[in-house]
Structures are given as structure tokens and as C-alpha cells.
Write a structure and sequence with these properties.
Number of strands: 11
Number of helices: 1
Distance between the termini: 39 Å
Order of helices and strands: EEEHEEEEEEEE
Strand content: over 45%
Largest sheet: 7 strands, mixed
Length: 121
């Protein structure tokens, strides 16, 4: 059982920043693309961002491009999601994922338990 452990969620005001972290065990971290999805109440799960193992390729959802940045620290087995200029519509449970490079849920084999991000207006 591969466990991805997210942290860093919370309640912030619109315009603020948060950084989410996700730790993955080896060999999962070094062998897989790492990414983030989110799901707001009553809405479908939505792709947010992803990064390949070497960090050379990334994909961002249009809704977060230029505000969110994904990065990974291979020495710490950790992937980050830096979220700036947060908006109320960013409110969701954010899930860390590990799998193949892509923006579909089916590209990912492993999912974390999720961390809540709430942005107040």
C-alpha cells in the first residue's frame, strides 16, 4: 500500500498564499510523475498540475496557470504546490497523486487522502 501524505492546507483570505506538500515513499516518488488534483463540494474532481520525475515537463490547468507552481525536491521525496493569489473558487480538497504524465485521473495510480483548502472572500 503506497501512502502519499499531504499537508499544508488551511483557511486563508482571498489573495493569500499557501504551500501544499506531499511526501511519497520510495521507489514511488523517484519512478513516478507527481501531481495534484482537487475536488470542490458538489463538483467533479479537477486536474491542477503535474511534473515529471526529472522536473523537465509540467502541465497546469488553465484556471491555475500563472498563480500556482508545482515543484519537487527529490532529496526529500516531496512534491509541492505553491498557490498564490488564491481565490474563493480555489476552495477544494487537494489530492496528491503519483503515476504517469498526463492530466486525466486515469493517468495516476496512487492518491493521497487529501488536504482541505478554504479561501474566504
Amino acid at each position: 500500500q503506497v501512502q502519499l501524505v499531504e499537508s499544508g492546507g488551511g483557511l486563508v483570505q482571498a489573495g493569500a498564499s499557501l504551500r501544499l506538500s506531499c511526501v511519497a515513499p520510495e521507489p514511488t516518488f523517484s519512478r513516478h510523475t507527481m501531481g495534484w488534483f482537487r475536488q470542490a463540494p458538489g463538483k467533479a474532481r479537477e486536474f491542477v498540475a503535474t511534473m515529471t520525475t526529472n522536473g523537465w515537463r509540467t502541465i497546469y490547468a488553465d484556471s491555475v496557470k500563472d498563480r500556482f507552481t508545482i515543484s519537487r525536491d527529490n532529496a526529500k521525496n516531496t512534491v509541492y504546490l505553491q498557490m498564490n493569489s488564491l481565490k474563493p473558487e480555489d476552495t477544494a480538497v487537494y489530492y496528491c497523486v503519483a503515476g504517469s504524465y498526463g492530466d486525466r485521473s486515469s493517468d495516476y495510480d496512487y492518491w493521497g487522502q487529501g488536504t482541505q483548502v478554504t479561501v474566504s472572500s
